[in-house]
Amino acid sequence: MNDVIRQIKNRKSVRVFENKSIETNVKEEIINAAFEAPTAGCMMLYSILDITDQRLKEKLAVTCDNQPFIAKAPLVLIFLADYQRWYDTFCFEDCNPRKPGEGDILLACADAIIAAQNTVVAAESLGVGSCYIGDIIENYETVKEVLDLPDYVLPAAMVVYGYPVESQKKRKKPIRFEKEYIVFKNRYQRLTEDEHMKMHRIRNEKRGLENRDIGDGIKALYNRKYASDFAQEMNRSAAQYLKNFKHK
To answer: For residue 27, what pLDDT is reported?
Structure first.
């Protein structure tokens, strides 16, 4: 196993950081890694916001489901799916462009998230931990205003970075599902009820939770995530962003 594979296997989210800044050269390596990511048509359909304003970090910690550790992170980057830049370029060159649509912004989201993951891998190789913040999708009105986002730009991901404290280094990485339930050949395979139960049972056994009721665990996750207030807000907010890409 080479170092890259080992680091990918060992990488886990870090939410508690040392009270230590990330050195300028290390920060530059992390950000520069985004530029080496695959990108559709070499269009680079993303922009990156480097959040250095502490008051803005604190604001985002609140809008992103009240997570104080965001404000304490030495480095906060927001990866924007950005079709505004190319739309403006096309307009400047009198191309008479159509307005960007749903497919355009989905492609831009892919570009932005791939770029984000490159920074995460680079950070890990430099001893810097990271955590994705999906809640950046919430609170459309506030986020759009404080980040000054134009109509054809939306936040695809936010990542916070910092040197992990010792307890975070020692924390076990959460167990994933078995490959047979995730990777299919040629066509999608919808799992049966028995296969769903087996998938969860195997993971519970690997987590040392073989005596835990599978149904209770699923219902707890449903209430904590899928049926939560923040999930409802995320869907409401995402719909507002996507309105700008829906045209009759």
So the answer is: 99
